[in-house]
Amino acid sequence: MSITHSPARYGRLVSGAGALALGLGAALVAAPSAHAADPRDVVADSGSVSWGFRESFRRYVGLQTAALPPVGAVPVGERITLVAPAEFDTDGTPAATVDTTPPNETLPYLLPVSGGSVTDADALSVTSSGGAVFHFPSHAFTVTVENVGIEVSGGVGKVVGDLSVVIPENDLGYEAGTYGGDNVVLGDVATTTVDVSGGQVSVTADGVTLTQAGASAVQDFLQEGAELDDLTVTADLEAPAQAWNPAVTLSKSSGFDPATTSTLTVEGSGFDPAANTATRPPITTGQPTGVYVVFGKFGQDWRPSDGAASTARTVVSQRWALPEPSYSQLKASNPGVADQLVLLKDDGTFTADLQVKTDDADGVYGVYTYAAGGAAANAAQELAVPVAFTPAGGGGGDVDVEVTVPEGDDGGEPGGPGEPGELTWTIASGGAISLGTATQGDAAFTASGDLRQVTVTDTRTGSPAWSLTGTVTDFFAGSRSFSGSALGWTPAVGTNTGGAVAGAAVAPGSGSGLKGGATLVSAPEGHAAGSVSVDAGLDLAIPLSTPAGDYTGVLTLTAVG
After folding, report:
1. Sheet strands side by side (includes 383-387)
2. What is the pLDDT at residue 362?
3. What contacts 457, CB < 8 A, 6 or more positions away?
4. In this structure, what DSSP letter does residue 504 have?
5. According to the model, what pLDDT value does residue 10 have?
6. b (16+ CB within 10 A) / e for 125-147
7. How far apart are CA 507 and CA 250, in angstroms?
8. Among 89, 265, 532, 539, whose CB has the most other CB atoms within 10 angstroms?
9. Residue range 136-163: average pLDDT?
């Protein structure tokens, strides 16, 4: 939070305004909570589900144990067959030795991974394709198990798959029909071990037992709780999506002298180069247009995404951050604007130098970014960072305010005392003012801190009345914002040899707060010549609907006398 001031000389009515950049750094949080990672897709055909259903069942069917006449046993090699693209796992252990050529049909299976999604080790789903068919006509069934996968929720695994049991007309007392279904939870897992690292996921499911749903599907050929084979999964994950979180950092945000022109360097990061596309010249339609990077005096309602007219944006200095190939195209076709262009790199970064100047120190200035070149409005890339001026001859200092997060500018040196016959004010330096971490109450997020002590000295002949007032803008974090009415203060006068009085307290989050302006301290006409020190407690009451973010606003102190 930076404050500047300007002296009011004897015999003049002067409005000396200073900008106070209020940095609400870091995130607004109700309470620390884990943020789930974005799910990543499983790459199809990048791995396999290794499973054998149930070893004793493979042995039972593979050997056609106790095959009944007149049907008898089916030929070796036709007892357990595969559903493509499944393969026998030749590195696995067969359930029985059968008189057939390799591979042994009682081997377990490798089922190619067909897809899935992984959030983390406690939340994932992996599916496969293919399966196995168990033929045992003399016992009146054909069982098909296919498309087996693993689901993990809250760290607990379940084996899922399609299960079909066909029972023909028979003399064995079984009711003919087709049973089972798709996506049946076949097995409960006693121990699920998951590793998500290096772009891969692996899962081991130990202690798998048949569920009630599985037992019902096989018509109780197997009972609920029957031991099934352990299952393993390996697969690759799609590369995580690029996270684009636009942000800008200024080489300096306060202390600029309006009487001179200064250079300000803006470092941008997290800007998606492909987010904005051209709809008109000079960029070819459909090519990326990047963002404008502007120093200027903008209204509080300036955002194109909110329908603000261009008249709400007074541009002082501008650069155009353009990605390739638009950057090279425009430089070649319009050499006259080449010096206005900066490259928006593929990683979303840019560096732009802006000229900072003004003849209106009372204005609220800042650095702004927004979609360029006639592209549709992009709220995510509409950023605002206040910039403060220190009028020539004025004292003052920089004070940063933090709530949970922002790192602000270090405080500058306060100005010297005013000349005889002057009204002057200074603010103590001292680094950042920490409002702590905003905490959640029943009705709002709240945070509090203290304004650095302000000293006002009036040595003017005749002791005319004076006042020092404050007004705050809305607070912004990228495209997010909350109203300046969330900020309030409670002024208190300390040492007082000048007959001054503290302004009334302003409650945060009610009415217009400091957004509507309020008096910090004042003195009536005819007051004693001297000085006064004044402090103020700062309080925020932020709506519970406010998204997390690093918020910045501008509090302007104006001396009138």
Report:
1. 341-343, 313-322, 291-298, 365-371, 383-387
2. 55
3. 417, 418, 422, 423, 424, 425, 498, 530, 531
4. P
5. 26
6. bbbbbbbbbbbbbbbbbbbbbbb
7. 32
8. 532
9. 97
Residue 259 has pLDDT above 90, yes or no: no
Give start and end residues of each alpha helix (H) in 107-252. 212-217
Distance from C-alpha of 554 to C-alpha of 251, rounded to nearest angstrom: 18
Is the pLDDT score of 411 beyond 80? Answer: no
Task: List Cβ<8 Å contacts ≥24 apart for 180-184.
Answer: 180/217, 180/218, 181/217, 182/147, 184/160, 184/213, 184/214, 184/217
Bridge partners, residue 162, by sequence: 146
Report the 10 Å Cβ neighbour count for 156: 12
CB 58 within 8 A of CB 109: no
Q: Residue 434: which pLDDT band, with cuts at 50, 70 and 90?
A: low
Q: Using alpha carbons, list the distances in angstroms from residue 19 to 284, 318, 385, 391, 397.
A: 41, 22, 12, 11, 11
Instruction: Output phi, psi for 338, to 5 deg.
Output: -55, -35
What local confidence, expressed as pLDDT, does residue 438 receive? 77
pLDDT digits (tens, 9 = 90+) for 362-377: 557 899 999 998 899 9
How far is residue 558 from each of residues 6, 179, 330, 361, measured CA to CA in Å? 9, 82, 45, 11
Beta bridge partners, 558, equal 17, 469
**Which tops the pLDDT comparison, 398 or 37?**
37
**What's the whole-model pTM score?**
0.51
Burial label for 70, CB within 10 Å (0-12, 13-18, 19+), is exposed
Evaluate whether 298 touches 311 at the Cβ level (below 8 Å). Answer: no
Contact 528, 496 (CB under 8 A): no
Lowest mean pLDDT among 87-101, 305-319, 431-445: 431-445
Per-residue pLDDT, 432: 52
Question: How far apart, in whole angstroms, are the C-alpha atoms of residue 295 and residue 354?
Answer: 7
Local structure of residue 444 (DSSP, 8 states)? E
Q: What is the pLDDT of residues 528-555, one digit of tens each?
A: 888 999 999 999 898 888 877 767 777 7
Question: What is the SS3 assignment for 453-468?
Answer: EEEEEECCCCCCCEEE
Show Cβ contacts of residue 518 under 8 Å, excluding neighbours closer than 6 positions: 469, 470, 471, 489, 503, 504, 506
> Which phi and psi angles does 333 have, rounded to 5°?
-85, -20
Residue 79 phi/psi, 5-degree rounding, is -85, -45
Asked whether the beta carbons of 332 and 313 are under 8 A apart, the reply is: no
User: Mean pLDDT of all residues in the chain?
Assistant: 84
Q: Collect all residues with Cβ–Cβ distance below 8 Å to 447 and sequence separation of at least 6.
A: 24, 403, 404, 435, 436, 437, 438, 439, 539, 540, 542
Whether pLDDT at 29 is above 80: no
Nearest to 438 by CA among 515, 546, 553, 535: 546
3-class DSSP state of 423: strand
Distance separating alpha carbons of residues 206 and 532, to the nearest angstrom: 76
For residue 36, is pLDDT > 80?
no
**What value does the CA radius of gyration of the chain take, rounded to a whole number of Å?**
36
Summarize the confidence of residues 327-347 as an average pLDDT: 92
